[in-house]
Amino acid sequence: MQIIKKVLNSSVVLVEDERGVERVLLGKGIGFGAKPGGVVDEGATDRVFVALDDADQRNLVELLAQIPGEFVELTREIVRDAVAAGLDLDPHIYLTLTDHLHFAVERHRRGLVVVNRLAWELRTVYPDEYAVGQRGVELLRTRMRVEVPDEEAANIAFHLANAANGRAGADTMHVVRLIAAATTIVTNTTGIVFSDDLHSSRFLVHLQFFAERVFAGRMLDTDDGFLFESMGQRHPRALSTAERVRALVRAQHDIEVSDEEVAYLALHIARAVPG
């Protein structure tokens, strides 16, 4: 049995079960006419429960009380689209994305322009999330009657990727920033400029998996050193470039990248930069 503790808006209420466990309950119109102490009807099937695990999430719940319910419904549509596209998302996406969409609309209405400097990396590395983000932008424009810029698709994609990576133990911002830094290192060292071609996309996909393994603590580390030594002999410039990425990770995140990861990174650098 779920007892209503607080009505946040027309689509969100804070509930508590018989064990005293609090959760956020989202459902279209669930807040209309609801009052603290009321019992939630358990017959509805289109509702979403979100657990409250820490203080930050509780603070976010309080923010929802200041956000119109239509933003919650917009988030639910975007999440349904993402799930249909095969994404496995942490339920807290309902809180973070709702807050973001509301802020994006308010920011646009005030004429504030914020450039997402990682938009290209997000679009390239997370194409499924970006496609959902593009459809989300169209929903924003239609439902909220605001002409948010196309770039907003990258911001939505970021939240979706972060929710998906949350399942895998990685942090999207760390991942995307490492990808951006690594491509800059490769460009500065080798002269190659990354674009939307097949070779660039293939390299960025490897960087994505590399970064996710680094931050999730699942690095490759089973090789006996043969590949690392071989890359040093055959592709010294590529290995030297990969070593610079290792040094960056060590300096910025205090994480030691394994020789095997460096060797595979060098291998992909060598493929991207023939000769």
From TrEMBL:
InterPro entries linked: BglG_antiterminators, CAT_RNA-bd_dom, CAT_RNA-bd_dom_sf, PRD, PRD_sf
SUPFAM superfamilies named among the record's database cross-references: PTS-regulatory domain, PRD, SacY-like RNA-binding domain
Record keyword Repeat present: yes
Protein species of origin: Microbacterium thalli
Key words, A-Z: Repeat
Name of the protein: PRD domain-containing protein
Record keyword Glycoprotein present: no
Pfam families linked to this entry: CAT_RBD, PRD
Stretches assigned to the PRD domain: 66-170, 171-275
